[in-house]
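Example 321.
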Amino acid sequence: MSGNGDPQRFLVLGGRGFIGSHLVDALLTRGHYVRCFDRPHVSPLAADHLSNPNFLLHEGDFTSEADIEAALEGCDICFHLVSTTLPNSSNIDPVFDVESNLKGSVRLLTHAVRAGVKKIIFISSGGTVYGIPQEIPIKETHPTNPICSYGITKLATEKYLGLFRELHGIECVVLRLANPFGERQRIQASQGAVAVFLGKVLRGEAIEIWGDGSVVRDYIYVADVVDAMMRSITYSGEEYVFNIGSGRGISLNQVLDSIENTTGCAARRRYLPGRSFDVPASVLNIDRAARLLNWTPKTDFDQGLDKFALWLRKQLEHSGV
Ligand SMILES: NC(=O)c1ccc[n+]([C@@H]2O[C@H](COP(=O)([O-])OP(=O)(O)OC[C@H]3O[C@@H](n4cnc5c(N)ncnc54)[C@H](O)[C@@H]3O)[C@@H](O)[C@H]2O)c1
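Predicted structure in complex with nicotinamide-adenine-dinucleotide:
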């Protein structure tokens, strides 16, 4: 709800994805109007929202100027969750990354100003914008030297948000996410260690680990991510960039130990030589979000994993895998 309790009109770009679909649930639950923008024919990850009178599905392509212009019409606040690339593969074709993500995002901002959109909330990446960490946990003020194109276009988009705020007064919030996990995450993807590992353990498949499994990452349960997004709606302070993670580091070996405990199934681990581009540790400092968004994560790793495993078991049973 807005400050006076009225429902607002939201545009969620990428609203049929893993995080976006949870965000749409939360917005509809609060009585808001939601226009969900995604590619045509993306099958819903959960019970469809189409029967909700406050929900509108707007199919289109983020890289199409006409589609974005039409989607923005009449919206108060836009959540931007589209990414056409992944960190690991973005260096293969940086031109595509710039053309689709950066150009698309700047075009989005231009049309958002024209359409009178009040605020843009952008999902950036705490795992890539900083590059190799000089200190752990990483604060928002840490140097930003991404080592993949994905991180560079995320960072450049953040900067354009700041520029458009200065030039045109459009409000913005940037959430630099750590490693989200939870229900509806795809287990076939090349991103998301928790999802990929959990899927393999439940199907009795071997897990390949690059290095000795000591690589540490910051994992955050999806409901806590959505909570931070919802708090961003009413936030209007000067700082606009926030780390969103658990603030705690967990190694890949610890992730697998927890998966074994939760599922009661053994993880068949195959250790491979480490990869040069995997930084040994990445953990976010989340003090700024705690102080200014009044946000802290509520679900610890094992609790989140229990919920995710329960959901995934049902999915796998249902699909007969
Ligand atoms: N999942 C992670 O580990 C992670 C970590 C940090 C940041 N992020 C960021 O969070 C955001 C959401 O991530 P997610 O995990 O929910 O991803 P996702 O792939 O599940 O969702 C993204 C959605 O965007 C849509 N999309 C992609 N290209 C499009 C295009 N050209 N036109 C229209 N729609 C398009 C996809 O169909 C998908 O539904 C992304 O911006 C991602 O970079 C994700």
